[in-house]
Predict the 3D structure of the following.
Amino acid sequence: MTTNPSDNGYLAGSTLERVLRAGHFAVTGELGPPQSADREIIGKKAAMLMGYCDAVNITDNQTAIVRMSSIGAGALVVQEGLEPVIQMTCRDRNRLAIQSDLLGAYALGMRNLLCLSGDHQSFGNHPTSKNVFDIDSVQQIQMVADMRDEAIFQCGDKMKGQEPRFFIGAAAAPFADPLDFRPYRLGKKAKAGADFIQTQLIYDLEAFKVFMEKVRDLGVHEETYILAGVGPLKSPGMARYMKNNVPGILIPDEMITRMTQAGAPWKDIPKDELTKEDKKARSSAWKETGIQICIELIQELQEIEGVAGVHIMAIEWEAAVKPIVEGAGLYPRPVVSEQPA
Amino acid sequence: MIVAEQKSLDEIKSLIGTSDNILVVGCGTCVTVCFAGGSREAAILSSSLRMSSKLDGVSRNVADVTVQRQCEWEYLDAISDQISEVDIVLSLGCGIGVQAIAEHFPNTWVVPGLNTTFLGLPTEQGVWAERCAACGDCVLGLTGGICPIARCSKSLLNGPCGGSEDGHCEISPETDCAWQLIYDRLESMDKLEVLMDLQTPKNWQTSRDGGPRKIVREDLRLASEQE
């Protein structure tokens, strides 16, 4: 690791930044910290992702459920030799806490950051809590860009000493409402200083192509690296649930049908006669198809102009990342030199 | 207006405890308009308390009176004799009314009969909705007259989060997405360009975060002193 990335021509000098700058198709993954203080779980998950992703997102109390902190788990991931993308929401921290936590995260060796507004606490396991939302995700991006590029805190005070130099990411939800505003909202995040974008899960390629066309018209794909979000479906039930219940996720009916067909050999067995082995076999068949669909999606996403990589969200299914990355022909991951080309 | 709703009778009874002489004080302004604490509600609550005391086998005097505004000293002065005769005052004013009574009558025990809920308006008969968070630094000029501080669940200033779907907020199908409303209004008025500006972090000092707030109008103070 370089001692002062500001002198080497990179913004942060993270592997993710280097891979993208070199023009490679980037792969990021996701590592959800445990709802406990078990460091072993982090080690196990990291081992499954190591070598298959350029960096892995460490979620920040995702879905507003208390978990090991993103920075705490991120420090463990760094020790494992894997590169983290620290997720930071505006839900639980005000501008003081965000900045101070990020100084600590940088000092602990973290170099990538994803700025999020955060799931509302009413979804999680502490729905009676108070939220913060002192700043929003766009303002967070601008704040950390100023910390890096101007070495100032949000209040304008000059930093005395090393500034935290993060490769700054943001999220985009191409299919959430108001739909027409989404490319502009992405543009606002790029303008605020987002170096890379990770999108919500994409299953509907045609809809995503329409979105990307608008993004290209605005020139936003030249201002920021866009990583398309993908994730393997586990079962037709999961696909239907996401389609119907998660805002901004479109899943074509053919895809759900394909998942259903993967379980066809078991469809005529009455529910109460399905043995444990049957269920296991059916689940494997579904998962295999889910992984295959994911691979095909990645291959098609690579053909879309302005898509710089993929963000694989295999939540609580880290083992799926290896076959997906290998299947998509993205393994081994490139090794990029210390200096930009 | 200030919108409030009545606490449950059980909670009110537990707040009253064993007091024998009770004065229910209604308020003739905001809480009258939202049917939570006007003269009608004060009378109904008094008789509910009398009936429930009788059922509990307790003998209690419960009277009620309603003032025009509990939040102004002159209206409270008008009921000071009645207040001095009771053990406890059950205020059906908003939180301001309860505190005004406590402040104006230092020897009187006062308890709230309402939960003060928000600053809002009736959207239809029997439905009230929040409109203002009293943040002290109005942004409505940037958002087409629709407040993202009060009406977006995350008080976002730069547009909708990814949880906006079919016009409603991710937290509930009953909650409008404020940013969808803002977007639609700006679009209809051909002013969408307003949304492209980056809104910098808000100064929350003017809100509750700056500590309890106070306005001093020297022009008005001097005028009253000259009288």
Q: What stands out?
A: Residues 206 and 212 of chain B are 10 Å apart (CA to CA). The first strand of chain B starts at residue 2 and ends at 6. Chain B is about 30% helix and 20% strand.
